[in-house]
User: Fold Enoyl reductase (ER) domain-containing protein from Agaricus bisporus var. burnettii.
Amino acid sequence: MRAVLVRGGSGPAESLYIGEAPKPQITSTQVLVQVKAFGLNRMDIMQREGGYPVPPGASQILGVEFSGTISEVGSDVVEWKVGDHVLGLAGGGAYAEYIAVPSTHVIRKPDNLTWIEAASVPEAFLTAYQALVLIGHVRKNDDILIHAGASGVGIAAIQLARYFGANTVTVTTSKQEKIDWLLGMSNGPTHAVNYKTEDFAERVKTITAGKGVNVVIDFVGQSHFNKNINALAMDGRMTMLALLSGSLVEKVNLGPLLYKRLHIEGSTLRSRSAAYQADLIQQFSSNVFGNISGEEGKGSIKTYIHKVYSWDQIQDAHKEMEANQNIGKIMVEIT
Assistant:
């Protein structure tokens, strides 16, 4: 089969090319999916550069989310049949014509989502759902702070926070263009802050009348850490999903963790067990997925696409993500 490969095993975007790779062989509990579209995620860039080891047993081919048609089912699989339209989550291998995944890791694609829209859902929305619900224990009337607000996960988290009844949802980003776009979303944030020109901790204190936020979803790490601690309310919860500004915080006052009874937890969805991921997918499918539509659809939660590339433009797609100019998901269709 054809797949996007990395010349030399790691390198810049120019090292990506379409080549030949072995077609996956499925086990008795897996399905084989002929991929129609896949989404880009920042971990793909890190893996391409050699800085993100794949989980044990996962494909070395890039890509963790996809949509497509089931072309083969394992002997123990009863819930799926050849020809079913699905979207799914994988440990790797989505940048290819075929991908093998556990039967528990695909969701039936509804007719109201295109192949592109369907493939944009799994990683962003499952990560956001895990961060807010399973770890952040979001509750009705909570005040929420979400960083990297214009990213795929950020946009998903904003809408999920509103869906679960948040009182306020404050997002941070670095560009006025992104702030304007986010505030124009139909189910978007209640407030937005440019973290380069304003202290987001002080801003959320003002927004919440001095209380602080109940939940923080952070992707940034080092540069935001102390302000995040300051921004959190009593019994606040913070989920850390990435460390874009670095992992080393030189000076931290541990006092607030103690007297505010804070809960801080890090998580990477890709490294979770297959059983954990299957349970997460089941919960998300039952509680949220039916409310998702494309940007022009009628769903109370929408998936927003920044740009769609053909897979022979994969180098350009990676460069677009590296430029950090996107609002929403960068998607690729296999042609």
User: Anything to note?
Assistant: The longest helix spans residues 122-135. The CA atoms of residues 29 and 169 lie 40 Å apart.
